[in-house]
Structure to design on (298 residues):
């Protein structure tokens, strides 16, 4: 049973969705889109260049202490999307992890995905893959890199880190197919002003080890010292919201820090509220035991 505070919060999300503010300048004037993106790239490059906390290093010698390990299936059924784009995605991920493998993040330094990987370019071996823009599936250079940012975000959530910058997927585009992680536990990226930035708040240095197998993206976050904390991700209040003939999806993500048998801290990581773009059938909701809140009369 949902409490009144949560119901009110969801009603506010619905109201803001149905009464959006003014469109972005680039949407109102499409011809300005490229100049605006150029300026944003320039501003972010200057900001990153001046931020000494981003100056991290790389080594082919790996630390011995494993904090967390994770793997992600490379090929998944995503609605009616073209399987060819998943193969293209793997090529892009393979290029990017060459820059990421062995990266060391010292204490108080910040990991920036784009600052390390750089701009995807055809000349560097990147290819067109699947992009999600405004809830639409498109094909574009470097497409599929969001799987990498999702992967890294999940890994960093299980370590003594602070999420400095993370952007959520604004729409629920595909129905669940073999989902093992909570809805909304990923991070979308777009070169270079939608970034994933993570600060090392431990007293040790952290190191990323990442590689591909035939079927999986795999990785570990390592440390030069023993880390005594264990981190667990908790999902709360996961439900579908019915509004007339439309559906929305909502949940809350929290992180629990545990030392031995004692829970030291529980922190709110993020809330997710997203319109559902696929057809939601009653059988789908029942099979997955999804709770449904009917807000049609709100």
């Amino acid at each position: 049973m949902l409490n009144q505070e949560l119901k009110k919060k969801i009603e506010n999300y619905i109201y803001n969705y149905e009464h959006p503010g003014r469109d972005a300048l680039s949407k109102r004037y499409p011809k300005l889109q490229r100049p605006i993106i150029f300026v944003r790239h320039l501003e972010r490059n200057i900001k990153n260049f001046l931020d000494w906390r981003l100056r991290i290093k790389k080594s082919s010698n790996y630390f011995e202490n494993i904090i967390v390990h994770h793997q992600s299936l490379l090929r998944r059924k995503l609605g009616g999307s073209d399987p060819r784009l998943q193969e293209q995605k793997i090529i892009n991920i393979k290029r990017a992890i060459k820059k990421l493998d062995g990266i060391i993040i010292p204490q108080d330094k910040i990991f920036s995905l784009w600052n390390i990987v750089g701009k995807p370019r055809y000349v560097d071996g990147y290819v067109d893959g699947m992009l999600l823009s405004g809830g639409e599936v498109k094909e574009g250079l470097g497409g599929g890199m969001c799987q990498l940012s999702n992967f890294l975000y999940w890994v960093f959530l299980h370590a003594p880190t602070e999420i400095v910058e993370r952007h959520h997927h604004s729409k629920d585009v595909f129905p669940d197919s073999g989902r093992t992680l909570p809805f909304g536990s990923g991070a979308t990226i777009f070169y270079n002003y939608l970034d994933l930035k993570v600060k090392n708040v431990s007293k040790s240095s952290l190191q990323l080890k990442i590689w591909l197998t035939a079927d999986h993206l795999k990785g570990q976050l390592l440390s030069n010292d023993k880390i005594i904390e264990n981190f667990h991700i908790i999902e709360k209040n996961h439900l579908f919201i019915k509004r007339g003939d439309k559906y929305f999806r909502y949940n809350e993500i929290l992180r629990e820090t545990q030392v031995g048998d004692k829970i030291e801290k529980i922190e709110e990581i993020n809330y997710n509220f997203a319109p559902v773009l696929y057809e939601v059938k009653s059988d789908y909701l029942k099979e997955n035991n999804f709770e449904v809140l009917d807000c049609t009369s709100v």
